[in-house]
Amino acid sequence: MKSLPTIAAPIAAVVAVLLAGPAAAQLSQGKGPVDIASDQLETANNECVSTWRGNVEALQDNARLRTDLLKMYFQKGARPGSAGGGNCGDLIRMEAQGAVYYVTPQQRVHGDNALYEATTDTLTVTGDVVAAQGQNVLRGERMVINTKTGEGHMVGSAQGRNKPNRVRGVFYPQQSSKPQQPAQAGQRR
């Protein structure tokens, strides 16, 4: 089964790649246990589906995923002893529905829904998506990231100048710790 950071890292990768540039796209992959809690859990072993419902919270290391509903789909007919137990194997798809929040010490992402596809290594967050890193913020209707390549894009629900609901970003320059020296008279910078 893929770990929470493997699933959630795409969200952080989008924030890092789209907001902070290539240098910040290096993400650590935690290997700690995943702790999932919810009000209810339903399992359909024949279908290899687990549904976590009501105040779902998944934690691993310093990453936290919160949502109203989390459905996890596992590969059917897996080898004996594989992750997922019984006839179920590795995670193939995960759906988070209703007020999806992903938070690490560096990034915050919110959307209405999220879909992770393990076979294509893509994560799609939809519905009033807000991705933030520090003071930098991106807003859009849909955000897609390839977890292997780190490539991603965000789209809005409208196109054209002066239209509401276009992709919007607010970026703050990094504060330099070294003050700039003024240029000497007659010298170019």
UniProtKB/TrEMBL annotation:
This is Organic solvent tolerance protein OstA. Residues 152-189 are annotated as: Disordered. It comes from Phenylobacterium soli. Keywords: Signal. One of its GO terms (biological process) is lipopolysaccharide transport. Residues 1-25 form the signal peptide. Residues 36-150 form the Organic solvent tolerance-like N-terminal domain. GO terms for cellular component: cell outer membrane; outer membrane-bounded periplasmic space.
